[in-house]
Design goal:
This is DUF4214 domain-containing protein. This protein has three domains: about 90 residues, no CATH class; about 50 residues, no CATH class; about 70 residues. Helix content is about 45%, strand content about 25%. The strands form two sheets. The chain has a three-stranded antiparallel sheet with strand order 4-1-6. The protein has a three-stranded antiparallel sheet with strand order 3-2-5, with no helix packed on it. α1 crosses α2 and α4 packs across α8. The longest helix is centred in the C-terminal third of the chain and has 21 residues. The protein is elongated. The relative contact order is 0.11.
Length: about 220
């Protein structure tokens, strides 16, 4: 079955990481471990609640917490709270959690391999913070935010109006090319109001000043 050990962690110093081994007894000795990066460890003397989720064979009986491995860093305090078996519903909650973060941060559902990877990570000691950090630092998510920032900046500098969140989402999720996006703006009344009265030279000069924050050189003109 799937089990979860809940404990508290407190750093007494500037530890770069905490490699935590939990000794769970099932009629034999089972070691389950997790590594917490320094970013997930709170400031010294602040308690941090941790969950270590892991799987044991279905025939495992009399599962009980026996202690933490003595090899942990001396500047880490650990305080055991609880050990319990997760129900089927709680396993489904892990799946739902992964789907929600993928949808929120990447705008799509996870693939089968991605779902299996993160289910294993969360069951073997990974945290929700690990999932969020991985998605936020992914090339896919970074590209989405760069597109959103570019769309908002372009609209503001060209047409003099800020886009709200819904408008930005509509522009960047449509899947169209930037050329199509610009063409759509050029056909709108906002474009005529802001830029329609400019000749080619003044239009190019405005682009340089607003987007590149400099005057155009003769070659650029």
């Amino acid at each position: 079955g799937t089990y979860k050990v809940t404990f508290r962690l407190k750093s007494k110093g500037d530890s770069s990481s905490a490699f935590i081994c939990v000794d769970v007894h099932t009629g034999g000795r089972v070691l389950n471990s997790t590594t917490l990066d320094r970013e997930t460890i709170p400031e010294p003397n602040d308690w941090f609640l941790c969950d270590l989720v892991f799987s044991l064979p279905e025939f495992a009986t009399d599962v009980e917490f026996r202690g933490f491995n003595d090899g942990r860093p001396t500047d880490i305090c650990l305080d055991y709270i609880d050990l319990r078996q997760l129900s089927l519903d709680e396993n489904l909650l892990l799946t739902k959690l992964i789907h929600e973060y993928y949808t929120l941060l990447l705008g799509r559902t996870p693939g089968t391999q991605e779902l299996d990877h993160w289910m294993d990570r969360l069951r073997s000691g990974g945290s929700k913070a690990d999932l969020v950090k991985a998605l936020l630092s992914s090339k896919e998510q970074k590209g989405k935010w760069e597109d959103k920032i570019f769309a908002a900046s372009l609209h503001l500098h060209l047409l003099g109006e800020s886009l709200d969140h819904e408008q930005i989402e509509t522009l960047t999720e449509s899947g169209g090319l930037w050329e199509e996006l610009l063409q759509g703006w050029m056909n709108g009344t906002e474009w005529d109001t802001a830029l329609g009265g400019l000749d080619n030279r003044r239009f190019v000069e405005k682009l340089y000043r607003n987007l590149l924050e400099r005057e155009p050189d003769e070659e650029g003109l």
